Amino acid sequence: MAQYRILTFDGGGIRGALSVNLLQRLTEDFPELLPNTRFFAGTSTGSFIALGLAYGLAPADLADLYSEEKGKFIFTPSHIEVFKPKYKNEHLRQALCSVFPEDLRLKDLKHRVLVPSFRVSGNGTGSWRPIFFNNFPNSTTADVKVIDAALSSSAAPVYFPSYQSHIDGGVIANNPSTAAIALAGDEQGGGQELDDVCLLSLGTGFSPQRITADTTQWGAFEWALYPKPTFPLLSVLLDGVVELDVYFSRQLLRKRFHRINPALTKPIDLDDYKKIPYLVALAESYDLQPTIDWLNQNWL
After folding, report:
1. Is 61 labeled as catalytic in the residue annotation?
2. 244-255, pLDDT tens digit by residue?
3. Helices marked H in the chain — which ranges?
4. Is 286 buried (19+), middle (13-18) or exposed (0-12) by CB count in 10 A?
5. pTM across the whole model
6. Which of 10, 148, 168, 239 is catalytic?
7. At what angle do helices 289-298 and 16-29 cross, to 10 degrees?
8. Which of 77, 122, 126, 237 shows a CA-CA span of 20 to 30 A to 287?
């Protein structure tokens, strides 16, 4: 039986409503899930959930963040995204401040947590690079405020402005599972043996995206702004590589890795808050029995 249990959450904007409602059902059916979790990881919208759980909140406490009313508040007003971000981040900050104290820091959280982001500009001679906000021993980011880590991880290009020189962690690890396994095994992090690790990964819905147009002559404008899928290059970065992390994680952990990622009937943009009722209904109807069976075999 693996001793080091990790719970991870993908990015996906309002599709986090699917993740948090699946999690709420899981905790009702399997009460041991959260008490036995040692380490939470989340990217972008998934960082809100991971940070909330590491803080000690229950899924029900986080569900309001994914209500249709709150989604509308976060994603309005909108701007033409060619010359400026589609949204300001003030409303998102206010929503996060309704969940987390403004002065709460990563080192203050009750549980270990990992939040990926990407720093696009450095101070002095520093270059752009991945940033993995965490509160493990010897972490250089333990003093970072939870609000700042969340805003850094969710600053999706085009949609939101960069935050403190960071953009959305989804450009490097929209599914943070592999990153979480790596940090758990790092001597400066968890120092865990791979055989002692098991991981439950919650996605934000498998989106049936594809480009039907002929891309052979596409330039910067088409890759950036072609309407189907919305912002195609960004969609490839945020959604296209998610399943690659699933493959790597499964190869590393084998049967000790489990993934929940319901298929969506159609693509849902990360700001399409009107689809939240559909996402909630999908979470309520999804068959969790295979996951419960896996948890009984690996999580107790």
Report:
1. no
2. 889 999 999 999
3. 16-29, 45-55, 59-63, 68-74, 90-97, 146-153, 170-173, 177-185, 220-225, 232-235, 242-253, 276-285, 289-298
4. middle
5. 0.91
6. 168
7. 60
8. 237
